[in-house]
Specification:
This protein is α+β, with helices and mostly antiparallel strands. It is built from five helices and eight strands, in the order H-E-E-H-E-H-E-E-H-H-E-E-E.
Length: 193
């Protein structure tokens, strides 16, 4: 398992918890920007408001997560307009998430190398993950943009045991290597609990 990826997801979660302590708790959808402690940018998407996430902090129920970690191609390998397409698609996904009651929170941040981003998406049910994955904007991004923008992608999924503060338990990792051949090399690793 890639421990740097899991450390990044923990870092994002800690930043969300710190942000909840300092901002007013509301129950209206919100998109806002902030920073991690070392000033890297982060974006918070609260589809049901900060109040919903604050409630999940106090509960000890199992929550489900997906953590997306992508390594972008070198600038010289990127075709014209791909960065704009990536950010436009990201905006479409955020707009979809704001209308999506199945997502509790979507948190995207710059990684330590300052060239790549990752995100942490929180769900209250495992079934909700498949609903989001099959959405039109998400499916189009996976098929049309990811192979052109990323060298490799790691998608971790699992549970937060004991609520939002709980330990991150990765159950499955999907690895996509877009540099391996004409077809991306795809492997899935299931982790023992």
């Amino acid at each position: 398992m890639n421990t740097a990826d899991i450390d990044f997801l923990r870092e994002v979660r800690t930043a969300v918890l710190d942000d909840l302590k300092s901002a007013p708790v509301k129950y209206t959808p919100e998109v806002s920007n902030g920073h991690l402690p070392d000033r890297r940018p982060v974006r918070w998407v609260f589809p049901r408001g900060r109040g919903h996430i604050a409630e999940l902090v106090d509960k000890r129920d199992i929550l489900y997560f997906v953590g997306f970690i992508g390594d972008t191609r070198k600038s010289s390998e990127l075709d014209d307009g791909i960065r704009k397409q990536i950010w436009d698609t990201d905006q479409q996904l955020v707009e979809q998430l704001l209308q999506c009651p199945i997502v509790s929170g979507y948190f995207s941040a710059e990684r330590a190398d300052k060239n790549n981003w990752g995100n942490l998406v929180i769900f209250q049910s495992a079934h909700a993950i498949s609903e989001l994955v099959t959405s039109k904007p998400h499916a189009a991004a996976v098929k049309n943009l990811s192979p052109r923008y990323y060298r490799r992608v790691r998608i971790h999924s699992g549970e937060l045991m004991g609520g939002f503060y709980g330990e991150i338990q990765v159950r499955k990792t999907i690895l996509l290597d877009y540099e391996s051949a004409t077809q991306p090399a795809r492997s899935v690793v299931y982790w023992d609990p």
